[in-house]
Amino acid sequence: MTEHTSAPRPETTGAFCVAALYHFAKFSRFESFQEPLETLCKAEGVKGTLLIAHEGINGTIAGTDPAIAKVLAYIRSQPEFSNLEHKESRASKMPFLRMKVRLKKEIVTMGVEDIDPNEIVGTYVDPKDWNDLISAPETIVIDTRNDYETAIGIFRGAVDPNTKTFREFPDWVKNNPGLHNKPKIAMYCTGGIRCEKATAFMKQQGFDEVYHLKGGILKYLEEVPEEQSLWDGACFVFDERVSVTHGLKEGNHRLCHACRNPITAEELTHPHYEEGVSCSHCYPERTEADRDRYRQRQLQIALAKKRGERHIGG
To answer: I need a surface site. Which of 8, 139, 271, 273 has the fewest CB within 10 A?
Structure first.
């Protein structure tokens, strides 16, 4: 195995702790858990989104260190989530506008009803061993994320399915018989949750040696030194930071609030970029009426900023 030096720690200068978490468990009482969980989060000033369903919990929250610790302790006090793991990073400002605890049919939507990661799942691979696995000639590496995520970062040599939603992934697998050409399948996603279902699906489809990156890209960027990394680019995150890089430092991407695509500093100079209205990704897909509507929203955001307020649409 490749030797690894001591890993860089996540950025510690940010005022807010950002906790990404998920746990699959049989959780039949999820509906009654919504109100007390949301009440605690709001009382502690924690913001973000948590999804709860019969199959478990998933989400990302941010707040002060004591507040996040209190919320995580409460979640782990539930017997179903006593073994919950989470990943922490930092943010220089609160990356969420509000707190939402949502009831869902699935905590990550794949649309295949008979997939249960508690029953069948791929083999977990620690970040320190990931480079060796994906560098092996007998391995096919698959990114299970969506196209706007892979556009800003991907593991070297990985296959990009170019899916727009995770629901498209099962059909992509079925339409690519060449995936059977090599004995090993290595899969990864942002924090690990999509691969729980993706690897379970692959096993169900007859793939024997299926592996996935434990803790996802976030754990890899936290633990593997940049000079030894096989990751190129930045990792898209679902909050106002937009992206993180090695050591989980905040990236330089911004978000187009018209289409929610991450955009680079170079794309900010594109003629089709107008803050809050359009970018080079969405300009061809939107009408002038759409852009007029977005301009009105952007005007309200600017007026709220002048008043020292934060517009909910911004």
So the answer is: 271
